[in-house]
Amino acid sequence: MDRSLNKLLVHHYKKIMIALALIISGIYLVQTVSDITSWKSNYNYFTSEKSKEHFEKQIKESYSFDDQEQGKVFLYFDLNKEETVYTDSFEEYKNYNLTVFNPNEDANQLAFNSYPFYNEHFLQFLIIFVLSGILLFLLDLKSNFNALLFTSKYKRSTIYWNKYYLIGGTLSLSLFISKIISLLAYRFFIPNTFLNISLKQHIISSFSGWFTLVSLFILCSFLGLIIGNWLFGLAATLTILFTFQSFLSNIDYIVQTFFLNEKDLASKVSTNMLSTVLPLRQVTTQPFNALPLLVLIFLSAIVLFLGQFIFESITLENSGNFIIIPKLKRIIQIVIIIYGTITFASGTFLLTFFPNEKIEYTGMVINSFKIGLILLALYLLTDFILFNKKPKIIEKILF
């Protein structure tokens, strides 16, 4: 790492780095202290005589209801069995209410955001990592700082990697350390009796969220690197943000269709990574299919190294264009069409040509027309945005 360049970049990004580190660590600190304090407060209540008296009062009141569960209190609703679970045991009632990562709120109800005493704040971190990634290169492109760097003695490749070391390193390291401290705090301050998750499950589930956010940061920074127009850049980012889960879900669906047999489907796809990681609202005790996360990491690794070569060929003259590297426009068009096809048309394609049940001829024709329409729309849209080519059909209609 070039010391003089590093000093220059630290001076330029110092306030941003401090702010990011404080925000990330602050969110985790407040969340961890608040949730553990809340658990301690509940523990004190459920181990008091007042709690036991309240439970016995509920038992007595249950006899006034004309149903078959007299003498018991409500515990939870089992969504899998579609039945309400009651209990007349105070210990069972107490343990259920004090259990963190309660399986009845996870496997049965699939309520990943309902864990008491725990919150990953994934949405807040998603916004921070996505915006930081986009602005990593795009912000400097619109300022004089890039012009200063490009005319300096420093190599483009060195500038590129130093930006990642400083901003990306601050983000990923702050989140990593915060997750470790939070994880250790839960395991130290909450007895294992009530912490219904193994250390292995806790680590895998929590840090799959770390890999997800870091990978999304890298992908978004690549967007900020190749995009030169703020308006189109914002539209493209929002589109990817709201469709990426569908993209990964359809990849999962493709793998299920072509590479898994019926035996594997029940065990391997019953809970997939998309349910627990994208977005990862909570740590979960459920097993998951890691394929979508591996795809995400693989894509981010490719664009991370590809970005260096692109950064070396950037010229400020094209900074107003949607794609700042003219030679990449056709490749970007192909990538967008493939991404759009997988996201919007692959499900229809698989249901039409690889159905579980026989589909009628009329349905095949309609679905084929839909797929063709999606492909045409993607081609015309990318042609207009990237090459400013107006579709002749639309020109005839409008003019």
Coarse shape:
flat
Assign a percent range to the helix content: 55-70%
Major β-sheet annotation: 2 strands, antiparallel
Output the strand order for the largest sheet: 1-2
Total strand count, please?
A: 2
Terminus-to-terminus distance: 58 Å
Spell the H/E element sequence: HHEEHHHHHHHHHHHHH
List unreliable stretches of 5+ residues. 104-117, 263-282
CA radius of gyration is: 26 Å
Mean pLDDT across the residues is: 79
Provide the β-strand percentage band: under 5%
Number of helices: 15
Summing up helix and strand content along with how strands pair, one would put the structural category as mainly alpha
Secondary-structure map with pairings?
Elements (H helix, E strand, L loop, with lengths): L2 H44 L2 H14 L10 E6 L4 E5 L2 H9 L23 H20 L2 H7 L5 H34 L9 H28 L3 H30 L2 H7 L4 H4 L14 H22 L16 H16 L1 H8 L7 H27 L4 H7 L1
Antiparallel strand pairs: 1-2
Helix pairs in contact: 1-6, 4-6, 4-7, 6-7, 6-11, 7-11, 8-11, 8-12, 12-14, 13-14
Molecular structure report:
- The chain is mostly helical and 399 residues long.
- It has helices at residues 3-46, 49-62, 90-98, 122-141, 144-150, 156-189, 199-226, 230-259, 262-268, 273-276, 291-312, 329-344, 346-353, 361-387, 392-398, and strands at residues 73-78, 83-87.
- The protein has a two-stranded antiparallel sheet with strand order 1-2.
- A hairpin with a 4-residue loop joins strand 1 (73-78) and strand 2.
